[in-house]
Amino acid sequence: MKSKKQTKKKQSPKKTSVKTINVKHLARVEGEGSLYVRMKGKEITDLKFTIFEPPRFFEAFLRGRKYFEIPDITARICGICPIAYQMSAAQAIEQAFGIQVDEQIRELRRLIYCGEWIESHVLHIFMLHAPDFLSYEDSIQMAKDHPEIVQQGLHMKKIGNALVTVIGGREIHPVSLRVGGFYSSPSKKSLTQMLDDLKWTRDAAEKTVEWTATLDYPDFERDYEFVAMHHPERYAVIEGKLISNKGLDIDIQDFEDHFVEVQVEHSHALHSVHRERGAYKVGPLARFVLNYDQLTPAAKQAAQHAGLDTSCRNPFKSIIARSVETLFACEEAIRIIEEYEVPERPYVDVNPVPSTGHGCTEAPRGLLYHKYRIDEKGIILNAKIVPPTAQNQKTIEDDLLAYIPERLRLPQDKLTWQCEQAIRNYDPCISCATHFLNLHIEKT
Amino acid sequence: MKKPEKILVIGIGNEFRGDDAAGLLAAEKLREKNLDHLVIRFNNRDGSALLMLWEGFDNVILIDAVSSDSEPGRIHHVDLLDSSFEEKLTRTSGHNFSIFETVKLAGYVDKVPSNLKLYGIESKNFTMGENPSEAVLTAVDRVVELLSRYKNQEPVI
Predict the structure, then answer these.
(1) A123, A126, A149, A154: best to mutate for the B interface, most B CBs within 10 A
(2) A152 within 8 A of A126, measured Cβ to Cβ
(3) Which of B44, B110, B111 sits opposite A172 (nearest CB)?
(4) Which fold has domain A16-218+338-443?
(5) What is the mean pLDDT of each run of 10 residues along chain B (157 residues)?
(6) Could you report the predicted ipTM of this complex, rounded to two decimals?
C-alpha cells in the first residue's frame, strides 16, 4: 500500500493528467446527443450526457386540442414506438372519462404492442447494439462478415412491422388506434395469415437469445432501482401498477407523488428521478427482473440457457433481456391471434367529463407515462409526458461515472467506444426524450 | 408475349422538411395517376426499410432529394449499381442510413434488385416546417412526367 506521502507526490498538479472524451454526435441512437467527460487523474470532474436535439414542445401544443386528436398527435413523437405513445395517451384519457374497454379490445391493443416490441427490439439488437459487441463501426460493416445474422434481423423486423401494419393500417404512426379502442378491427384471416411468419420469428428469437449469450460482456454491475409495470397474471405491457425492487408499489395515478422531472442545464430533456432515491432504471432488463414470473415457459427457458436471471445487474446484458422479450412478444402475439375473435364493435363510446387521467404502458425502451387534464368539452387543458429515455438519463450518467474510472488505462478510442456502448445499453430514443450522442472525454 | 414486369417506384423523404419532401411528392403524384406499369411505395424512415420495400422486385426506381452544388431542381439520374455512383452522391441523410449505405448493406445481405436507379432532385432548403421550393416542385412534375411516359414500354430502367 502506498504511503500518503508517496500518493501526494504522484498527484502533484504538474504531473496529473487531464483527459477528455468528447463524442459530438453519438451514432446508432435515435436522435441527436453527445457525451462530454473530463477527468483529472482517476477522478471524473465533469460528465454530461447531453441531448441537444431541439425541444419539440409537444406538451405545450397539446393544450387546446380535442381529446380524440391526442393519440394521433402523440404518435408523431416517435417513428419507432408510436404505438406506445398512442396507447399511453388513449388509456390516460379513458381513465379520465371513467371508460373501461373490454377484454377483446385490450387483447388487440396488446397484440399491436407486441408488433412494436418485435420491430423496435430487433432493430436495436441487430442494427444498433450488436456491432458494439462484435467491434464493427456499424451494422453495414457487420453485414459484410455476418450477412446471415443481419439478414435474420432484417427479416424479423419486417414481420414485426407487418403485424403493426395489419392492425394499425400502416407501420409508422398507425391510424387505427383511438380513445376507446380502434377505428376498425382486423379480420381473423388477416391475422391468421401472419401465424407462419410469427412462428418463424419466434424460432429466430430463440436463436437470437442463444446468440446474444455468446457475446463478450464487460464485468460491470450496479445496484439499480428497477422500475416497471407489474400485472399479477401477465407480463405487463399495457396495464398494471408500478413496482420496483426497492419497495415501490403504487398505482399509475400516484406516479407524480413518487417521481419528479428536474431540469439540467446541459440537456434539452428533463431528468426523471425518484423523489427520495434519485436515479432509477426502466426498460427490458428492469421488466425482466421484476416480471420474470409472468414470462412464457419458453422465454424463461431461453433466458436460463443464456445464463440470464433476475440477479442480473449488468446493463450490457440488456441485449439478452431484449432478445428474451422479443421471444416473449412473438409467443404472446401467436396466442392472441389463435384466440382472436373479431369484436362486434372495435371501440366503446366516449363521453368527455372534466377530469384528470393517467396512462402508463411499457414502451420498448421502458415506462411511458402520460397525464392529461381535460375540461367538460373534452379539450386538453394540460398535458404531461414522461418518456423512458428521460427516466434513464440520470442512470446512464451514473453508469458512466462508475464505469470510466476503472478503465482509464484503455486507449482513448477504446474507452470512447465503450462509453458509447454503455449508453446504447439503454437504446436511448433522444427524439422521444427531447426532448443522443457526441462524446467528449477530457483527461487532466 | 410476356407481360413486362412492374417497376417499383419508392418516394423517399420527409414531408415536413422543405425540399426533402420531393421524393414523396413525386411518388404521390404517380400514385394518383394509377399507372399499370408502376407500383408506388413511400419511405420516410431510415434506409434499411428500403430493403424490405423492394424485396421481390427486379426493377426499382428511387426518387429522393439530393444535395450537391448544383442548381436546385436539377434532376440527377443515377445507376445505383454502378460502382462509381459513390462519387456522384453525397452520403448525407436525414435518417440513420443513407441510400449509399443501404445499397452497400443490400449487397452484403444479397438483397439488391437487378436494376436500381435513382432520380435525385437537387434540393437546397431542408428547414423543418417549410414548403418545397418552386424549382423543386417543377422538378417533381418533370420526374413524374418522365416516369409516366414509359407506359406500355419495356421497363424504363
Answers:
(1) A154
(2) yes
(3) B44
(4) Cytochrome-c3 Hydrogenase; chain B (1.10.645)
(5) 77 90 96 93 81 91 88 90 65 60 89 92 88 95 89 49
(6) 0.76
